[in-house]
């Protein structure tokens, strides 16, 4: 039985480290590889929605890195979270032409965690933008998003690298993972400790999943950045781009040989 899609790409969570996904997509496009379907969680859902809406990776980089941290976030009196993403919602409303998943130029699947029943939900239809916000709402830092009377938070809690929705549907499956777990010297803030704890807790999921990928892009340098390093978007983009160029060499022959 033939696969439904030729090429699928999975984009992990990672906050500002998700700028690396744009570098990955640019390097793939330059090599003649254009994903037909995207699955993303958290930051991966943000990169994914812009790409699926028709933007080119450099356009997305320019648009998103041109905003400051406070353009995305606003601080609130702690109750359900320290911050909310009203700024990000404004950016999405301004630049994303699609308001429903069905309006996108490419199919997109977004992972978000259902807090009420403790399960992962993969959204691929219906209202779009509130799902992106829900998928990107890291616990403790951000307030839950209510969709149809259900509270949702970051997709990364249950599935930070949502490969499952694309398994057996793609001839080639590529993964861009923005959360390498390496040694870090010192954690200097509450946010850094919360981030490190969160990504360590989901790291074990990734190890068991990567065997399902034909190509994995996971730049080790990304461990030196944190989830709020929005001002370093261009640097993070370049890391993703260069790592993909390096990893593509053995893959590209296989990809194009099978295409012909």
Element layout with pairings:
Layout: E1 5-11, H1 19-30, E2 37-41, H2 43-52, H3 57-65, H4 69-72, E3 74-75, E4 83-84, H5 86-95, E5 108-114, E6 119-123, H6 129-135, E7 145-147, E8 150-154, H7 156-159, E9 170-176, H8 190-209, E10 215-217, H9 233-259
Helix pairs in contact: 1-3, 1-9
Explain the overall architecture.
With 260 residues, the protein is of the alpha/beta class. The chain has nine helices and ten strands. The strands form two sheets. Strands 1, 2, 5, 6, 7, 8, 9 and 10 form an eight-stranded mixed β-sheet that branches. α1 (19-30) runs parallel beside α9 (233-259). The longest helix has 27 residues, at 233-259. The two termini are 19 Å apart.
Major sheet description: 8 strands, mixed
Structural class: alpha/beta
The count of strands amounts to 10
- Proportion of residues in extended strands: 15-25%
Share of helix among residues? 25-40%
Shape: globular
Number of helices: 9
Order of helices and strands: EHEHHHEEHEEHEEHEHEH
Low-pLDDT residue intervals, each spanning 5 or more residues: 68-83
Rg of Cα set: 17 Å
What's the pLDDT, averaged over the residues? 85
Question: What is the assembly state of the chains in this entry?
Answer: single chain
N/C terminus separation: 19 Å
Short synopsis of the structure:
The protein is α/β, with parallel strands linked by helices and 260 residues long.
């Amino acid at each position: 039985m033939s696969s439904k899609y030729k090429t699928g790409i999975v984009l992990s969570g990672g906050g500002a480290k998700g700028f690396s996904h744009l570098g990955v997509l640019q390097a793939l496009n330059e090599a003649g590889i254009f994903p037909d379907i995207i699955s993303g969680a958290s930051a991966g859902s943000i990169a994914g929605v812009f790409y699926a809406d028709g933007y080119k990776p450099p356009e997305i980089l320019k648009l998103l890195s041109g905003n400051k941290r406070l353009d995305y976030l606003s601080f609130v009196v702690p109750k359900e979270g320290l911050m909310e993403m009203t700024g990000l919602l404004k950016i999405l409303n301004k630049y994303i032409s699609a308001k429903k998943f069905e309006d996108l130029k490419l199919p997109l699947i977004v992972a978000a965690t259902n807090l009420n029943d403790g399960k992962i939900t993969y959204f691929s239809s219906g209202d779009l933008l509130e799902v992106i916000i829900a998928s990107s709402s890291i616990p403790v830092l951000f307030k839950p998003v209510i969709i149809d009377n259900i509270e949702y938070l970051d997709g990364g809690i249950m599935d930070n690298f949502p490969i499952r929705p694309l398994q057996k549907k793609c001839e080639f499956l590529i993964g861009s993972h923005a959360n390498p777990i390496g040694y870090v010297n010192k954690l200097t803030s509450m946010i850094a400790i919360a981030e490190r704890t969160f990504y360590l807790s989901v790291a074990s999921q990734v190890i068991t999943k990567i065997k399902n990928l034909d190509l994995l892009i996971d730049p080790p340098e990304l461990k030196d950045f944190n989830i709020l390093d929005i001002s370093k978007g261009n640097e993070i983009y370049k890391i993703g781009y260069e790592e993909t160029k390096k990893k593509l060499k053995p893959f590209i022959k296989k990809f194009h040989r099978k295409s012909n």
